[in-house]
Structure formats: structure tokens, C-alpha cells
């Protein structure tokens, strides 16, 4: 088990351990390179750009050189959340020093609505203003300073109107961006009516700012034939290609979009990177000059959407042992002013309202409320975390109702034989892993001994209270929009034997490109150094899906594997008939940079370079495309039933906290994580994803608080007012391990499982542990109400409320 201890006075120990982990020595050598040191898929390897990252050589959008006459863009944003733009005076802006062009909605040559799935996202405001930060106009100037100064000269005439900011009230008035959806199974009404006991509760779950290190940025260069070349920090290049082409009124093939890497995305660059590319493309084509657009942090935070805040409530039927028999769950997503991806996001919240537990006969209803804020969008977990929160709150509430430990109640409600079908009709495969994970973690974390120690400590400590919680994760893997579950790849082998792979996925620091290179190396029996990856480009692999839904490695890895395996088989067929004396086609293989045929004394070995050269001289194609489409998945929206996920990934985490119940301040003392990734493609990268996902999830539930004023203007618009976790917030002891010996039961990439999103929800255990600590104020007889983020202020108020009720 990898243990990172933060304050033990030996910070270099963790660094040495990680180095040993990668190099193949030390206690984690079982995860490292294979016995021949080839660092193929399944072995740990450094991120393909790691050295570039730490030396500053990695190229991001701001590092791309442009011609000296390149233009810089600044945006005019609405200062109000709701109203009517009656007049926009821009003459002073146009006459400002350095200004080359100013554009509004009326200057758009093609489509003016750039909604990614459903309409509702105008590129500029025409008349109706829907949120503070909405784009009114854009200025292009010879310098960024000149553009920003010019923007301030605009005169805005706005008839301001009251802003709708309450999603619950909006849903009650049927003010929604998409229709309400329902999933139900069995006779849940009768189950509730005839229940031994019923329990109900509600919870507000706050949103989250993506806070990527590299903000929204792009460079657009005009090309011949009225086209454009778009460099963008973007998770969905094909969608941006489509929208730029439609805005310009030109064919898709006239637009090329390139993404080498992003400085973070987390979902915030899936749909909401496109508007800025569209604006820059209009200016580039109008002026014939390369155009840069980069949002400052405060504008980025005001102009772009967040993780959806949710208001959830439940009513459950339970028996005397706390086992759920059925119930009714409602989730209300605060979608902002337009649909964006909210239909699918609220759907996924509904899909995950059960988390790891059988709901029995149940109905889950999802509302998509419209408010006057930026259109909320994809964020790691894509609604799943918000859906899970309500059932995890219910688990704690049930435990206190029946007088049992919350872990006991959770285990009693796990999916199991006879109770293994979700409320949307999918059977939970590998459900036994829930029990395996939790039983293993329960033992390795010494849960029950610590539970007794904490009870004893709390009994003797009137102010500082400790809390402990173990929470599981069951997360479905696939896009819930079926058509997105496809990917392509393009593979080139050059005559020196080196390889270039391109695929439709994008790299945002998560190590996708590294894993794809490892897949190709494994399929062709080569060292990882022989394979290089190029930027994601729409003119190499067309019509790609976004890098989202934890599907990047699953989809693109399978496409790359398809390309490599087809090329390998072509080389085998050629070699079998070409080399003198003939080669045994049966059992032919590529290993350690060699084509190997036959066994024993009849074995023949041909170096990879010789094989490639010979194939080229004999006019054998050394290029191949690959494609993959996820099988089996389907969902009938009319019935709310189907199999939306190819498989489930599982995990579990234990958190221990110490809470000052007078001030609300708290520390996360220890965290233990055990996570299921099947057969890991790269354990070093996967462990990093688990660690990072956990901390980001913990931040969402504890410190990251979004605040709007009464008029709907975001006031937490920078690092001074919006607090992401820092090194000082890490658990004092942080134990992370991957579950071994349990490959994916489905035919995934080498029986691996996705790792991007599932670890995020492991952070729920910290919030649950805070509630556990507060519950000790009533000797665990009641559950405190604790909305998220559970800031020290909210914790303090919850403790005060508990003490007041106890009087």
C-alpha cells in the first residue's frame, strides 16, 4: 500500500518511494515495468510530457508563437444577471488606440446560436441578458492592454430586471431548460404506504469551479480558401470544428482544430471552450490576421459555467434493520440559463442516486431548473457525485434512526444476489467487488478499533469531536448519449521503425497519451520510446467524441489497439510468405523489438527495423486506422429503462476527522483508499488519478464555495475568494492502493477500468465523517443537517443547531 505521510519530517521519503515505484525497485515493484523493461500497457511509466511539464518546455496556448501583427481580443461582458439590452454604444470603443475590429451579434456571418446539443446559447447577446458575465461584444486590438482598455469605453443601456436564482422555486414554476425525466421500478407507492418505517430528508449540494491552471484560451489563424486553423485548450475538438464552421458559414473541412495539451480541463472545456474559438475565428477571417483570445481568471469564472448545484430530497421505506425496501428520490439540478449538457448531467445524477445500494421499488425524478446564472456544464463525475450525495446522507440518517453504525447499514444495503438490478433496469455486474473492497478496507484501515477509540475520545472531549466514515462508490462507465461511445485512431510506422499514433482523445494532464502509447507498444512488442504521439487534430481523426465520461482510455485505447493489431496482422501475412525458407504463421508474435516465429530450434527472429524496411521495399502499407464502438449499451428514455453503462467501477474510502465544535474548524487526520481499476493500464498514473480525484472531491464538499450577490453577480471570482484545496489541506496520513486480482469482467482494454471520474466521489467520506463527528454531540442518536460545501461556518452552525435542539 502506498502511504503518503505529510508531516512526518521525511517528505523526501514519499518522493523516493514514487521514484522507486516508477523505476521498478522498492516495495511497489510489482506495479512497474515488465521483466524486459519495455514499459508497455499494464506497467508504470512516467507521463509522456512529465519532463516537459517540470522544465517548462511543454507548449500551451500562450506559448504558441504568432505573427507580429497578431490581434488580441478582449470581451465586453454583461454586468447584470437579467435584463434587456436596449442600446449598445461602441463608437468610442472603435476609435480607441490600437483597436482593429469590434464585433457584435450582427457581425456573425453564419449561425448565431452555438448550443452544443440543444439551442439556447447565443454567441453574443441580442437583446435578452440571461446572466452576469454573458458576452455582449468583442474587441480586437494590436495589444491585449489596448483591447482591455477599449472595452471599458462602451456605453451600455440595460433595462435591468429581477434575477431568478432559486432552482427549487424555478422548478416549481416549471421554469426548466429541458423536460423533467423519471425513472421508476416496481410499485414504490405501495411500498412506501406499507413500510415498517419511513425516513425522509433533503440536502443542498453546492457547485464547483473548474479552476484549471490554464484558463480558456485559443489562437485562430486564417488559412487559404476562407478556412481557419484553430489552436485551442479544448476537450472536444470536433464540436469546436463544427461550431466554428457554422458560425463562419463554411464547410467543416475548412476548419482544422488542434489540441496538443491542456493545463487542466475537468469538464470545463468540453463545451465551453468553443465560444471563444468561434469569436476569435470571426475576427481572424474579417481581418485576415492571427487572433489570440485568453480569458483573465475573473472573467473566466464569471463567463463560464460550473458544476451544477443540486437540491435533492428523499423518502425511503426501511425495515427494522435499516434495509431499504423502496422509496422516492427527487433531484433538482441548477442548470443556469441554457441547456448546455444539463439533460445528460441530471440524467447521470438520477442514474447514480442509488450509488452502491439497492433501492428496491423506487422512483427517481430529475428536474432541470433554469436560473439566471452562467449555463452550468460538465465537471468530473458529470452529475454522478451530486446524485450519490442524497443516498449517502440517507445511509447516515438510517443508521442513527435504527441505532447501528453507518458502515453496518451501508453493507446491509449493498447490491447483492437477488437485489442486483438498478432502478433504471441494469443488472450490476461484479457487485461482489463492493463487498470485497469494503471488507478489505474495513480490515486494513482497522475501522472497528478506531471506531471504539473515537467513541471513547468523544465521550471525554466536550469540544473537539472526532468522526469516522467509510463510503463506497459505484460509478457507471460510458457516455449516456449512445452515439458518443465511439473513437478513432491513426497509426503510422516510419521506415526507421519509429511510430506515430494519433487519436481522438485529448490530453489534459491525466496521462491519456501515455496510456495510448503504451497500448501501441504492447501490441507491436516494442519499447515505449519507439512510440510517439502527436497533437489531437480534426484533420487526422474526424468526428471524435469529447474526452469525458472517464472514457478516454477505454475508447481511444481500443481504437489504437485496433489500428496496431490490424497493422501487425498485415506484417505477419507479409513475413510468412516473404522471408527465405518461410516463417511459421501460426504462433507468430512481436516481442522485445523482434518478429518471432516458431519455437525451440526452429525459432527465427527478425528485428523490427528489418521487418519494417523489408515491408516498405515490398510496397506493404505501414499506416492503419482503427475504430471502436462500445457494445451492448442502450437506454430507452421513454421508459427510463436500459443498460446505459458498459460496466461499473468501484471504490471505497475511510476518512477520520477532528472538529472544533465551537469554531467549526476541522482537520482531516487520515484517509485510506482502496480503488478498483481492473487490470491497471499504468498503476503510477492511476494512483495519481485516485489521489487527485479524492482531493478534488474533498475540496468540492468542504472549502470550495461559490457565492453570488442578491443580483446574481458572482463574487467568488478568484483565488482570494474561492478556496481550492492546497497542500496544507491534505490528510495527515493518506493511504492509497489499487485493488488487485480483479480484472474487468467486460471485454474492455486489457480488462482495465476507467479511473478519471470514479475516485472523485471517494471524497464523500470526508463529509460523512464531519456529520459523524457532529452526531456524537447527541451520542449518535440524530443526524445533523449539513449542506455542502461543509465550510467551517456551516459546521459551526450545524453544531450550534444540534446543541440548541438538545436543550
TrEMBL record:
<dbReference type="GO" id="GO:0004854">
    <property type="term" value="F:xanthine dehydrogenase activity"/>
</dbReference>
<feature type="compositionally biased region" description="Basic and acidic residues">
    <location>
        <begin position="1"/>
        <end position="22"/>
    </location>
</feature>
<dbReference type="InterPro" id="IPR036856">
    <property type="entry name" value="Ald_Oxase/Xan_DH_a/b_sf"/>
</dbReference>
<dbReference type="InterPro" id="IPR000674">
    <property type="entry name" value="Ald_Oxase/Xan_DH_a/b"/>
</dbReference>
<comment type="similarity">
    <text>Belongs to the xanthine dehydrogenase family.</text>
</comment>
<feature type="domain" description="Aldehyde oxidase/xanthine dehydrogenase a/b hammerhead">
    <location>
        <begin position="55"/>
        <end position="162"/>
    </location>
</feature>
<dbReference type="Pfam" id="PF01315">
    <property type="entry name" value="Ald_Xan_dh_C"/>
</dbReference>
<dbReference type="InterPro" id="IPR037165">
    <property type="entry name" value="AldOxase/xan_DH_Mopterin-bd_sf"/>
</dbReference>
<dbReference type="InterPro" id="IPR008274">
    <property type="entry name" value="AldOxase/xan_DH_MoCoBD1"/>
</dbReference>
<dbReference type="InterPro" id="IPR016208">
    <property type="entry name" value="Ald_Oxase/xanthine_DH-like"/>
</dbReference>
<protein>
    <submittedName>
        <fullName>Xanthine dehydrogenase molybdopterin binding subunit</fullName>
        <ecNumber>1.17.1.4</ecNumber>
    </submittedName>
</protein>
<dbReference type="Pfam" id="PF20256">
    <property type="entry name" value="MoCoBD_2"/>
</dbReference>
<keyword id="KW-0560">Oxidoreductase</keyword>
<dbReference type="InterPro" id="IPR014309">
    <property type="entry name" value="Xanthine_DH_Mopterin-bd_su"/>
</dbReference>
<dbReference type="Pfam" id="PF02738">
    <property type="entry name" value="MoCoBD_1"/>
</dbReference>
<feature type="region of interest" description="Disordered">
    <location>
        <begin position="1"/>
        <end position="50"/>
    </location>
</feature>
<dbReference type="InterPro" id="IPR046867">
    <property type="entry name" value="AldOxase/xan_DH_MoCoBD2"/>
</dbReference>
<keyword id="KW-0500">Molybdenum</keyword>
Amino acid at each position: 500500500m502506498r502511504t503518503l505521510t505529510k508531516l512526518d519530517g521525511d517528505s523526501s521519503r514519499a518522493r523516493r518511494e514514487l521514484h522507486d515505484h516508477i523505476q521498478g525497485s522498492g516495495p511497489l515493484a510489482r506495479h512497474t515495468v515488465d521483466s524486459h523493461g519495455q514499459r508497455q500497457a499494464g506497467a508504470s511509466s512516467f507521463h509522456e510530457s512529465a519532463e516537459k511539464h517540470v522544465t517548462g518546455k511543454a507548449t500551451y496556448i500562450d506559448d504558441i508563437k504568432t505573427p507580429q501583427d497578431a490581434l488580441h481580443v478582449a470581451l465586453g461582458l454583461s454586468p447584470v444577471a437579467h435584463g434587456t439590452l436596449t442600446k449598445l454604444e461602441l463608437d468610442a470603443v472603435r476609435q480607441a488606440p490600437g483597436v482593429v475590429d469590434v464585433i457584435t451579434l450582427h457581425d456573425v456571418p453564419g449561425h448565431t446560436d452555438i448550443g452544443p446539443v440543444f439551442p439556447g446559447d447565443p454567441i453574443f447577446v441580442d437583446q435578452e441578458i440571461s446572466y452576469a458575465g454573458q458576452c455582449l461584444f468583442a474587441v480586437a486590438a494590436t495589444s491585449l492592454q489596448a483591447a482591455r482598455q477599449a472595452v471599458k469605453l462602451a456605453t451600455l443601456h440595460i433595462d435591468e430586471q429581477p434575477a431568478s436564482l432559486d432552482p427549487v422555486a424555478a422548478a416549481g414554476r416549471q421554469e426548466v431548460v429541458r423536460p423533467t425525466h423519471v425513472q421508476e421500478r416496481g410499485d414504490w407507492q405501495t411500498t412506501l404506504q406499507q413500510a415498517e418505517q419511513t425516513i425522509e430528508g433533503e440536502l443542498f449540494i453546492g457547485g464547483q469551479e473548474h479552476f484549471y491552471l490554464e484558463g480558456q484560451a485559443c489562437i485562430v489563424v486564417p488559412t487559404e480558401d476562407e478556412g481557419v486553423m484553430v489552436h485551442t485548450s479544448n476537450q472536444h475538438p470536433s464540436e469546436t470544428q463544427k461550431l466554428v464552421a457554422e458560425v463562419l458559414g463554411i464547410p467543416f473541412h475548412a476548419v482544422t482544430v488542434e489540441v496538443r495539451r491542456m493545463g487542466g480541463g475537468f469538464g470545463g472545456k468540453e463545451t465551453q471552450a468553443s465560444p471563444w474559438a468561434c469569436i476569435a475565428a470571426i475576427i481572424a477571417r474579417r481581418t485576415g490576421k492571427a487572433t489570440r483570445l485568453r480569458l483573465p481568471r475573473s472573467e473566466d469564472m464569471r463567463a463560464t459555467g460550473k458544476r451544477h448545484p443540486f437540491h435533492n430530497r428523499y423518502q425511503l421505506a426501511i425495515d427494522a434493520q435499516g434495509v431499504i425496501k423502496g422509496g422516492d428520490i427527487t433531484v433538482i439540478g441548477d442548470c443556469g440559463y441554457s441547456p448546455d449538457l444539463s439533460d445528460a448531467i441530471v440524467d447521470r445524477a438520477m442514474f447514480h442516486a442509488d450509488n452502491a445500494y439497492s433501492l428496491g421499488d423506487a422512483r427517481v425524478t430529475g428536474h432541470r431548473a433554469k436560473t439566471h446564472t452562467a449555463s452550468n456544464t460538465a465537471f468530473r463525475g458529470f452529475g454522478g457525485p451530486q446524485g450519490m450525495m442524497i443516498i449517502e446522507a440517507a445511509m447516515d440518517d438510517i443508521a442513527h434512526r435504527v441505532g447501528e453504525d453507518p458502515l453496518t447499514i451501508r453493507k446491509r444495503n449493498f447490491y447483492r444476489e437477488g437485489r442486483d438490478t438498478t432502478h433504471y433496469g441494469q443488472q450490476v455486474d461484479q457487485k461482489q467487488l463492493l463487498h470485497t473492497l469494503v471488507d478489505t478496507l474495513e480490515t486494513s484501515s482497522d475501522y472497528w478499533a478506531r471506531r471504539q477509540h473515537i467513541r471513547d475520545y468523544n465521550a471525554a472531549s466536550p469540544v473537539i469531536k472526532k468522526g469516522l466514515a467509510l463510503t463506497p462508490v459505484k460509478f457507471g462507465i460510458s457516455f449516456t448519449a449512445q452515439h458518443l461511445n465511439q473513437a478513432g485512431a491513426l497509426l503510422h510506422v516510419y521506415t526507421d521503425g519509429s511510430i506515430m499514433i494519433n487519436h481522438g482523445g485529448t490530453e489534459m494532464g491525466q496521462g491519456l497519451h501515455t496510456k495510448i502509447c503504451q497500448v501501441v507498444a504492447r501490441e507491436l512488442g516494442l519499447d515505449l520510446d519507439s512510440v510517439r504521439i502527436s497533437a489531437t487534430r480534426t484533420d487526422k481523426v474526424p468526428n471524435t467524441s469529447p474526452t469525458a465520461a472517464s472514457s478516454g482510455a477505454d475508447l481511444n485505447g481500443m481504437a489504437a489497439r485496433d489500428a496496431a493489431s490490424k497493422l501487425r496482422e498485415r506484417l505477419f501475412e507479409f513475413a510468412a510468405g516473404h522471408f527465405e525458407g518461410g516463417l511459421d504463421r501460426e504462433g507468430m508474435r512481436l516481442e522485445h523489438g523482434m518478429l518471432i516465429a516458431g519455437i525451440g530450434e526452429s525459432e527465427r527472429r527478425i528485428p523490427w527495423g528489418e521487418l519494417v524496411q523489408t515491408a516498405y521495399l515490398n510496397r506493404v502499407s505501414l499506416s492503419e486506422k482503427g475504430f471502436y464502438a462500445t457494445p451492448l449499451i442502450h437506454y430507452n428514455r421513454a421508459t427510463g429503462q436500459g443498460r446505459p453503462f458498459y460496466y461499473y467501477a468501484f471504490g471505497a474510502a475511510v476518512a477520520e476527522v477532528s472538529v472544533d465544535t465551537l469554531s467549526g474548524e476541522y482537520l482531516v487526520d487520515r484517509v485510506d483508499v482502496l480503488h478498483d481499476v481492473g487490470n491497471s493500464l499504468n498503476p503510477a498514473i492511476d494512483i495519481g488519478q485516485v489521489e487527485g480525484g479524492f482531493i478534488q472531491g474533498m475540496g468540492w464538499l468542504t472549502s470550495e464555495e461559490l457565492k453570488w450577490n442578491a443580483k446574481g453577480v458572482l463574487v467568488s471570482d478568484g483565488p482570494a475568494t474561492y478556496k481550492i484545496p492546497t497542500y496544507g489541506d491534505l490528510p495527515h496520513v493518506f493511504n492509497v492502493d489499487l485493488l488487485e486480482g480483479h480484472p474487468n469482467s467486460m471485454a474492455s482494454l486489457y480488462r482495465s477500468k476507467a479511473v478519471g471520474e470514479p475516485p472523485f466521489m471517494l471524497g464523500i467520506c470526508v463529509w460523512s465523517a464531519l456529520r459523524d463527528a457532529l452526531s456524537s454531540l447527541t451520542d449518535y442518536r440524530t443526524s445533523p443537517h449539513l449542506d455542502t460545501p461543509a465550510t467551517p461556518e456551516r459546521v459551526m452552525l450545524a453544531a450550534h443547531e444540534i446543541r440548541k435542539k438538545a436543550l
